[in-house]
Structures are given as structure tokens and as C-alpha cells.
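WARN retry 2 of 3 for item q-0093 after timeout on previous attempt; input resubmitted unchanged.
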Amino acid sequence: MADRIRFHLDENVDPAIADGLRRRGVDVTVTNDVGLTGASDEEHLVFALAQQRVIVTHDEDFLAASKSGHVHCGIAYCHVETRSVGQIIGSLLLIADCLGPDEMQNHVEFL
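OK item q-0093 returned
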């Protein structure tokens, strides 16, 4: 397992968040860059698990998948339009600074 949290942003998350995280040295992928545009939630979960990445999403379907017992490397959920890009970046940086990948395993963090 990686020693630092790595993120994967689904296609509903503003790519400016990925840019802000990358400028701060965080390893992050976005849907378009990894060929998952239009992919199902299941495909995102499989990708993120294989890559050991925490999914960043506004999609409540990921919460349902977690609740049903789907194994994942973590989900960072933010209800749509409740936080600014800067606030989301700050929250994700806090997660990356305070939690390890093992602590995020099958855990949902609400932003």
C-alpha cells in the first residue's frame, strides 16, 4: 500500500481541484486523464481500488456502494455546491496530512 493518500476525482468534480492538489504535490488522477469518461461508478471503484486511490465525489451513489459493503480505498464526499474549490482543496489536503491510506480503507470522509 502507498505511504501517502492518493486521490481520484470522478467526472463531476471540478478539475481545478486536481490542479490545486497537484501544485501542492498531491498525487491525483481525474476521469478524463485515465479514460473513464462516461464510466460507471463500479468502474471508478475498481480503478481506484487497483490504483489505491481515494475517490473524491459529489455523487451519493458512492455512499450507497460503501454502505452496501463494496470494498474501496476511501471516499471523500462533498455535497454538490456546498463548498468552494478552495475549501475542497483545503479539506483534501487536511485528509492527506492527517490520515494514512490504511485509515481511509473502506472509510467515507465528508467534506
